[in-house]
């Protein structure tokens, strides 16, 4: 990671302090977990949820909504989060299950899986915009939370990078679709390949009805 000037470093630390405001509301809750997902919109591949509990005094520069970060930065933060987190986990729900129960329910399922795999039990969940059914832990849905909470931002990075890595592996199995490049989203190239070749094992049948017979 490149060296920052003192001025830029101070500005980045100030930004991160603002992003800790939600966490500070729960001083009595020792373990605060941030949760976010990646992959609700693509035509192929799983939906992945990330759950991260960060130490209260943790400093991870450049934490932000994963969509606002470069791939290189996301990969760096992916490793740093794993190194510094009290606990982290990802939940993965595949395309067949998405078709079976719909993408919203599959997203909730992935989030519950992620929480269940944490090695420490959080006292409160900070979620990006949703309330997850089926959990007894107090939850706080925060609109655009991945840009407002360091914990949710960390969860978004864990989910996004994990899913991107999975799609790169799927690209090796199904190279004709270009999954490594578009990650299963409905780009023109992806839709053209889908129409020409037809779906593969990781396509969401409920998502591609308009493109295949």
The low-confidence runs, each spanning 5 or more residues with pLDDT under 50, are none
Mean pLDDT: 95
Sheet of most strands: 5 strands, mixed
Report the oligomer: single chain
CATH class categorisation: Alpha Beta
User: How many DSSP E strands?
Assistant: 5
Q: What does the radius of gyration come to?
A: 18 Å
| Distance from first to last alpha carbon | 48 Å
Tell the overall outline: globular
Number of domains: 1
What portion of the residues fall into strands of 2 or more residues? Answer: 5-15%
CATH topology-level fold name: Nucleotidyltransferase, domain 5
Return the string of H and E elements. Answer: HHEEHEHHEEHHH
Q: What structural class results from the helix and strand content? A: alpha/beta
Strand order of the largest sheet: 3-2-1-4-5
The helix fraction, in percent, is: 40-55%
How many individual helices? 8
Protein architecture, described:
By secondary structure, this protein is an alpha/beta fold. It has one domain (6-197): Ribonuclease H-like superfamily/Ribonuclease H (Nucleotidyltransferase, domain 5), CATH 3.30.420.10. The chain has helices at 6-18, 21-24, 71-84, 95-101, 103-116, 150-173, 179-182, 188-197; strands at 32-38, 47-53, 87-93, 124-128, 139-142. Helix 3 crosses helix 6 (150-173) and helix 4 crosses helix 5. The chain is globular. The model has no long low-confidence stretch (mean pLDDT 95).
A few lines on this structure:
By secondary structure, the protein is an alpha/beta fold. The protein is built from 8 helices and 5 strands, in the order H-H-E-E-H-E-H-H-E-E-H-H-H. A 5-stranded mixed beta sheet has the order 3-2-1-4-5.
């Amino acid at each position: 990671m490149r060296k920052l000037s003192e001025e830029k470093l101070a500005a980045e630390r100030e930004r991160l302090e603002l992003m800790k405001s939600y966490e500070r509301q729960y001083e009595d809750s020792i373990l605060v977990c941030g949760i976010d997902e990646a992959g609700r919109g693509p035509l192929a591949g799983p939906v992945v949820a990330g759950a991260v509990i960060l130490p209260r005094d943790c400093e991870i520069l450049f934490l932000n909504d994963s969509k606002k970060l470069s791939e290189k930065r996301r990969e760096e933060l992916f490793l740093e989060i794993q190194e510094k987190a009290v606990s982290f986990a990802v939940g993965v729900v595949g395309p067949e299950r998405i078709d079976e129960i719909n993408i919203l329910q599959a997203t909730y399922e992935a989030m519950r899986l992620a929480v269940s795999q944490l090695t420490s039990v959080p006292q409160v969940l900070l979620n990006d915009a949703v309330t997850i059914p089926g959990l007894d832990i107090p939850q706080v849905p925060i609109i655009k939370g991945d840009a407002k909470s360091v914990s949710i931002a960390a969860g978004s990075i864990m989910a996004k990078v994990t899913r991107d890595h999975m799609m790169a592996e799927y690209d090796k199995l199904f190279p004709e679709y270009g999954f490594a490049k578009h990650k299963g989203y409905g780009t023109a190239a992806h839709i053209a390949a889908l129409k020409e070749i037809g779906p593969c094992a990781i396509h969401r049948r409920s998502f591609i009805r308009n493109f295949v017979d």
